[in-house]
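Researcher: Please translate sequence to structure tokens.
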Amino acid sequence: MPKDIDDKFYERADAHIHLSNEQIADVGRGNASASMMYAAARFNAWVSACRFPTTDQMAAAREQEIEFFVDQYRGMLEENFDDYVENFSKYMTVD
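Model: Translation complete:
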């Protein structure tokens, strides 16, 4: 999880999840998930690009930038996966 989480962090995350949940009705969970991951990758490439004044500098930092985002995603996925394991019956119970 990012170290400096602001008070709207989870609200923004929930908004993205809500949109994906709406899309599930039309395309299914797998396709909605793939679209969300693509959007995150595209947005994060743009976030990285904003940090560099030149193409050459961005290209030189490619591996470091990718590693940062992959590490962040892995940590968040592990945290949420473990949460679902611990709370499976609570989260996956159909009303």
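Researcher: Any highlights?
Model: Residues 41 and 70 are 10 Å apart (CA to CA).
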